[in-house]
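Task card 7
Instruction: Convert sequence to structure tokens.
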Amino acid sequence: MPDPNNITRAAFEKAVRIYLEEAYGQGEPPQRVRDRLQWPPGETLADLAAGEAFERTPADVPPPECTRLRLRLGNPAFPHMKLGLDRVAETGDWVLTVDCHDQRLLEVVGDAEREAVAALIRANADLKSRIERRWADEGLPTFEQYIRSRLAARRTAGDAADA
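Output:
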């Protein structure tokens, strides 16, 4: 079983810092978010994810056996947005993602709220893109970076086979 130790505490803290900078700018996140940033000691992702602030999937297994981890950090307009970590099934590697957690909203709102909710979803998608682009620029493991590296490895293997 893969061990979620490929993301260090320092890398995860950097990802959180970038998320908070993009989501809240120069403002302070709400107290409930700051409370979620009080993590147990340890250096690995498994150590951090043992804390109560993390949502784990499946919920009833220890962090090394999870396939997804979520930390609800929100943004000023929508408190449900989450910093996510997803395990890549083929390799067991962990990648960072932003989970907007808003896709079902349009299904449950009335016509009067539809445009406002659609605008919120667009703003969340824009924020997600900015955060994930900064993570990639900082060399943090995102799904896009993972796919790019896998494709590059396949090209390299194909070029070697053709030689």
